[in-house]
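stuck on this chain:
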Amino acid sequence: MTMDDDLSRIGISLPKNLLEKFDEILNYRGYSSRSEGIRDAIRTYITYYKWMSDVKGEREGVITMVYDHEQRNLLQTIMEIEHDYHDIIKASLHSHVTQQRCLEVILVHGDGTKLKALAEKLMAHKGVESVKLTTIAIEE
């Protein structure tokens, strides 16, 4: 890591359970501080975003999503988004992980930029814990 003399301080609010899980991982992995762990997490997020930006051309893929089904209006919003992308969604599987959390797996096929747009629309809502798009290029 290169040292940057131009550091910025930020303040963030996190649910207690999220911070506790983060601290456990930091301790397990031997980070010297929360700041270093947060910097590493941000670098990973940026790398993933750049990788997602390269998803182009005809692709086959899967979107995995974990969300809180008790979040107000979230199920309706997810359904509306999925209907907007019915042309690229080939199948979906819904599983109740706990009383509150659901896992959804969505099989997709189409232009990579459209697959990425669907994943990004899904991840932008309160109550969605995680969304991951994994694709492969269609070789001719």
